[in-house]
Amino acid sequence: QPRIAPFRRVLLKLSGEGLMGKQAYGLDLEVVQRLAVEIKEVHDTGIELCLVIGGGNIFRGVSRAAGGMDRTSADYMGMLATVMNALAVQNFLEKVGVPTRVQSAIPMATVCEPYVRRRAMRHMEKGRVVIFAAGTGNPFFTTDTAAALRAVEMTCDALLKATQVDGVYDADPKVVPEARRFDDLSYTEVLRRDLRVMDTSAIALARDNGIPILVFSLHQEGALAAIMRGEGAYTLIR
Ligand code: UDP
Questions:
Q1: Model pTM?
Q2: Is the confidence at residue 234, as pLDDT, over 70?
Q3: Which of 35, 75, 140, 201 has most ligand 1 atoms within 8 Å of CB, for mutation?
Q4: Which domains does the chain carry?
């Protein structure tokens, strides 16, 4: 018995860290290629898909600000980093035959489309995967919040958050071996227990607009398609 109804349209959040694979920096194109195949699998079933791509593998505003840079400038650099990742993901998706459009929250007319909500909706109706780049377009935000925002704007049935492990744990399972995984959580519980799966503004936005969040492992092959069938291991936040 699936824990959640069949999906019509979903938003997948991929972090920069996820695209980095085992590398210390930048993109692991083998990982990007594998993810493209996994996304295609879901796209082939007729589910409408959009993506929000992070940029932490290239540039993270907060840490640079801590290193002496002006926070707003650093954040703009972080947003530009997400555009690079978006172009890489677009490239690999199109190589496996998935039509895509990149839309940037910071207009860059010669590189990709600007973000236009109604146009993004239309692309998805036509079977294109829309890749949202440049986060929210504002400094002091994260791509997690951008993911929650776009999921609401696109009237998605769920926000799929790909992480390093197969759900939300009560402690870091890489550090605490006996950490327990939650099957289900409420938004409020995530906030109250300070479970750092997404930042609080993202959780609050999802909560206020009733968007369920499914947290699953980026490393488990076939996990994305399994979740879309209502199978596999993941934490459901709603
Ligand atoms: N960023 C921003 N506004 C946004 C989204 C992102 O300023 O709406 C900047 C911020 O500096 C952030 C960087 O872009 O550190 C990369 O995004 P994020 O850290 O969310 O990427 P991820 O952790 O998913 O790789």
A1: 0.97
A2: yes
A3: 75
A4: 9-237 (3.40.1160.10)
